[in-house]
């Protein structure tokens, strides 16, 4: 019964947000999928967002259960007792989202994949979820040590498809090379592009003021 009430409360809350706009739009949200402290993903986010007001979610600090797919079970969806709803609310409230992840086995980190997979739960349980979550600007930062500029491209393609499905604008991405902590600082091309995007983001914020 408690889990059922949780499902209903989330659905009602999200419908309220859509109808009445009862939440403050936060602007830029960084979602960090690294499990390391002082990771290369951290370095890339710091370079990109220098001097820019933003919020950050470090997924390693939250509990997000893997999806339990119940879409075809003909039963009420059994909600997980974790932090997913809290993080989803922050994502919904943000205009611009920056996903940062190391490349693990040629895909995104497990932390980030769990969060993304749970969107299928929201699609199944929240009425008009795609309408609620649409029209966001997306940036993707990825970093790895094994030819990431080639082997990381499937991740970029994955986000292209995600953005197409959710009616998001995939603005740009940066692929960095690095394995040991702070290695990505040696990738001059990645650092240069991060600085360029920092300037663009700063300009976009100023134009909205």
Automatic annotation (TrEMBL):
<dbReference type="InterPro" id="IPR005025">
    <property type="entry name" value="FMN_Rdtase-like_dom"/>
</dbReference>
<dbReference type="InterPro" id="IPR051796">
    <property type="entry name" value="ISF_SsuE-like"/>
</dbReference>
<keyword id="KW-0285">Flavoprotein</keyword>
<keyword id="KW-0472">Membrane</keyword>
<protein>
    <submittedName>
        <fullName>Flavin reductase</fullName>
    </submittedName>
</protein>
<feature type="domain" description="NADPH-dependent FMN reductase-like">
    <location>
        <begin position="26"/>
        <end position="147"/>
    </location>
</feature>
<feature type="transmembrane region" description="Helical">
    <location>
        <begin position="12"/>
        <end position="31"/>
    </location>
</feature>
<dbReference type="GO" id="GO:0016491">
    <property type="term" value="F:oxidoreductase activity"/>
</dbReference>
<dbReference type="InterPro" id="IPR029039">
    <property type="entry name" value="Flavoprotein-like_sf"/>
</dbReference>
<keyword id="KW-0812">Transmembrane</keyword>
<dbReference type="Pfam" id="PF03358">
    <property type="entry name" value="FMN_red"/>
</dbReference>
<keyword id="KW-1133">Transmembrane helix</keyword>
<keyword id="KW-0288">FMN</keyword>
């Amino acid at each position: 019964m408690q889990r059922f009430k949780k499902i209903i409360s989330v659905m009602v809350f999200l419908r309220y947000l859509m109808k009445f706009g009862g939440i403050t739009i936060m602007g830029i949200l960084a979602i960090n999928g690294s499990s390391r402290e002082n990771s290369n993903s951290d370095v890339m986010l710091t370079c990109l967002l220098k001097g820019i007001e933003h919020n950050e979610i470090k997924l390693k600090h939250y509990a997000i259960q893997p999806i339990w797919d119940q879409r075809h079970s003909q039963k009420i969806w059994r909600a997980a007792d974790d932090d997913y709803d809290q993080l989803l609310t922050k994502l919904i409230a943000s205009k611009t989202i920056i996903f940062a992840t190391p490349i693990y086995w040629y895909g995104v980190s497990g932390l980030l994949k769990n969060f993304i997979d749970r969107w299928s739960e929201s699609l199944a349980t929240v009425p008009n979820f795609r309408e609620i979550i649409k029209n966001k600007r997306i940036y993707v930062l990825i970093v790895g040590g094994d030819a990431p500029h080639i082997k990381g491209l499937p991740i970029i393609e994955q986000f292209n498809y995600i953005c197409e499905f959710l009616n998001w604008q995939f603005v740009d991405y940066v692929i960095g090379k690095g394995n040991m902590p702070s290695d990505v600082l040696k990738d001059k091309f990645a650092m240069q592009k991060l600085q360029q995007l920092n300037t663009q983001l700063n300009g976009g914020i100023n134009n909205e003021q």
